Amino acid sequence: MKEQGILPVPLDLPGHGTHDEGPSQGFTLDDAIAVVDEATATTGQYDLIGYSMGGRIALHVALARSHRVRRLVLESASPGLPSYRERAERREADEQLASMIEREGIVHFVNWWETVPVLASQRELPVEVSDRVRRLRIENDAAALACSLRGLGTGALPSLWDQLESVECPTLLMVGATDTKFVRVAEEMATSIPDASLAKFEGVGHAVHLEAPNMWLQSVVPFLISG
Known about the structure:
The structure is a single chain. The protein is α/β, with parallel strands linked by helices and 227 residues long. The protein has helices at 29-39, 53-64, 84-104, 106-113, 127-138, 142-152, 180-192, 208-211, 213-225, and strands spanning 46-51, 69-75, 171-176, 196-201. Strands 1-2-3-4 form a 4-stranded parallel beta sheet, with helices on both faces. It is globular. The model has no long low-confidence stretch (mean pLDDT 92).
């Protein structure tokens, strides 16, 4: 898509897509920020869009590179788990999942992943879309994905709830109305980020860009070109 001078550059998080296998203990937040730094090395300010895990990373980038990020779009994203206990429990669960991925392989993991409740609404996607998404998921490397989960999972990263007031750029929070957990998160984030707007999409679940691509574009493009 190129619209009104917008030239998107898709990025894979460490351990996803074409990235090589990482260290056995997992990738680090610095590794993830470096991916963005490398992609934007020759640019000035840039706009950053992140979905789910990518949104959480994008929020870290916006705080660490506040002088570079012009506008921020967070889709179905969270600032993390607020308490040490919650993060510890999530790390344990993520370690079990990472071990399952390594033991059973990527196809087994994708079969399981496609049944998790947060993705239930994706079962209504057109066949050609769901088939394409499944192919992309299966292209991931099992060992690399496990490393990413260990190093960049929700339990591994620090909470940013107490830093939301420091987000300097205009921020668009996007969430599907049927994704009730993330609706609550987005509404709370909107009260803390100084220049935040919230777009909630009726009849849509966790993956707004997949389930309602036209509505997604109608929100994102005007937001990016308005500043």
